[in-house]
Amino acid sequence: MNIVDTQEMYQHLRSKLEHVVPDFELKLKAEIAAEINQLKLEHNAIILGHNYMEPALFYSVPDFTGDSLELSRKAASTDKDVIVFCGVRFMAETAKILSPDKTILLPAKKAGCSLAESITAEDVRKLKVRFPDVPVITYVNTYADVKAESDICCTSGNAKAVVESFGTDTVIFLPDQYLARNVARETGKHIIFPSKLPKLDPDLDVQMIGWEGACEVHEQFTVDDIENARKQFAGIFVLAHPECPPEVCEAADFSGSTSAMVTAAHESGATRLLILTECAMGDNIAAQNPDKEIVRMCSIRCPHMNEITLEDTRESLKQARYVIDVPEDIRTRALAAVERMLAIGPSGEFKR
Question: Which of 51, 64, 201, 295 maximizes the CB count within 10 A of its CB?
Answer without folding.
Answer: 51
